[in-house]
């Protein structure tokens, strides 16, 4: 590798490490326990690669896969603005508290928008912004903050949404028990399928064993 290319690659790697560190810092204030950010990145990369070989081959290329792996670490950046009394509460949030929790999507996207003002051409920032704002949107239109429906939800956020739900079901949380892999798959497939892009759901079902391996490997 030429010295200039090597320097550029090292700079990019350093920046991605910083992004991951920021995501992990947010994770430390949340109810998820251990290595959540790294798992989310791997789930998103796995789903994207599968979708890129099939129904979304015209949209998902190697750049998309690289970008979603890195940018997904920032999806919960808005939680940095939430009070510990709500974010780390050991019981189910009240309705008022839930309204505050929901603002992490708009706060996070606004933070990234401020950076995009200086770098409007950045695909990385655009994807990070889309995931921060829209990862709680649902395919059936019942999500937040914009009640988007179907393909109006950015594809990166539709991929992240399923990854987040799987990891939440598997994880120990202060107010809800963790579930084994088979039960997590059943819930996603049979209980809440209308939340997800059907193509993303099918890709997940094809890859569910890999999801289980990623989660298990993070527990060591």
Properties at a glance:
220 residues, mainly alpha, globular
Secondary structure layout plus pairing:
Blueprint: H1 3-28, H2 36-52, H3 62-71, H4 84-87, H5 95-102, H6 104-116, H7 123-134, H8 155-170, H9 181-191, H10 198-217
Helix pairs in contact: 2-3, 2-8, 2-10, 3-7, 6-7, 7-8, 8-9, 8-10, 9-10
Question: Could you please describe the fold and organization of this structure?
Answer:
The protein is mainly α and 220 residues long. The N and C termini lie far apart (36 Å). It has helices spanning 3-28, 36-52, 62-71, 84-87, 95-102, 104-116, 123-134, 155-170, 181-191, 198-217.
Q: Taking Cα atoms only, what radius of gyration do you get, to the nearest Å?
A: 17 Å
Helices and strands: which structural class? Answer: mainly alpha
Q: What order do the helices and strands follow?
A: HHHHHHHHHH
What percent of residues adopt helix (DSSP H or I)? 55-70%
Major sheet details: none
Which strand-content bin applies to the residues? under 5%
Shape: globular
pLDDT averaged residue by residue: 87
Report the total helices.
10
Number of strands: 0
Can you tell me the residue ranges where pLDDT is under 50 for at least 5 consecutive residues? none
Report the end-to-end length measured between terminal Cα atoms.
Answer: 36 Å
């Amino acid at each position: 590798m030429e010295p200039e290319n090597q320097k550029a690659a090292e700079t990019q790697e350093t920046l991605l490490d910083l992004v991951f560190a920021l995501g992990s810092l947010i994770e430390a204030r949340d109810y998820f326990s251990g290595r959540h950010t790294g798992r989310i990145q791997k789930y998103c990369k796995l789903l994207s690669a599968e979708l890129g070989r099939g129904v979304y081959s015209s949209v998902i290329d190697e750049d998309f896969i690289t970008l979603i792996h890195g940018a997904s670490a920032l999806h919960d950046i808005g939680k940095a603005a939430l009070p510990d009394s709500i974010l780390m509460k050991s019981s189910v949030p009240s309705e008022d508290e839930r309204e505050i929790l929901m603002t992490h999507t708009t706060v996070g996207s606004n933070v990234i928008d401020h950076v995009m003002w200086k770098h409007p051409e950045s695909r990385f920032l655009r994807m990070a912004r889309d995931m921060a704002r829209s990862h709680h949107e649902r395919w059936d239109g019942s999500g937040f903050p914009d009640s988007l429906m179907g393909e109006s939800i950015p594809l990166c956020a539709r991929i992240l949404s399923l990854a987040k739900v799987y990891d939440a079901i598997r994880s120990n949380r202060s107010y809800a028990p963790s579930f084994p892999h088979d039960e997590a798959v059943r819930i996603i497939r049979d209980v809440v399928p209308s939340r997800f892009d059907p193509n993303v759901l099918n890709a997940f079902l094809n890859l569910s064993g890999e999801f289980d391996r990623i989660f298990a490997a993070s527990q060591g």
